[in-house]
Structure prediction request, 153 residues.
Amino acid sequence: MAELEKCIECGKVIKDESHAPYCKVCDDKLDKQFDTIEDNVIIFKELLDTEIETLKKFETEDIEEFFKRVYKKFKADGNLNNESLIVLNKLKDSFGLVESKMGIPQIAVIKETKEDKLLKDNKCPGCEKEIQKDFNLCPYCGYKINKDFKSKY
Ligand SMILES: [Zn+2]
Ligand SMILES: [Zn+2]
Prediction:
């Protein structure tokens, strides 16, 4: 008798093979995580390294579809700005995606700079002290946090 296939996530024997190599419970859980990651990317334009690890459990095709949905959503919302492009580039690089294979135009290569990273961690890029994201200027060193901020005085 052939050995029973076990779920690669929890190690339990797979009863319903339509979800292999996962059991139904883990497959559902992963699908939910996938949806949550997609929401995070679309809403917060953020893709954490732990989320990339989760996405690695999926097929490349799933990731390509994911990339296309996110890209189209950003584009439809007129939101294809640097922040969006950084997260798209991160996704693209992590999975070696190619735009032409996905039937979408090549996206501009914009990587997260040290400055972006500090701001994301609520730190001033000028003095690296803790700040709040909605500050226009750093209260410690005067660094212009909000690039669109124009002093009225
Ligand atoms: Zn499982
Ligand atoms: Zn500062």
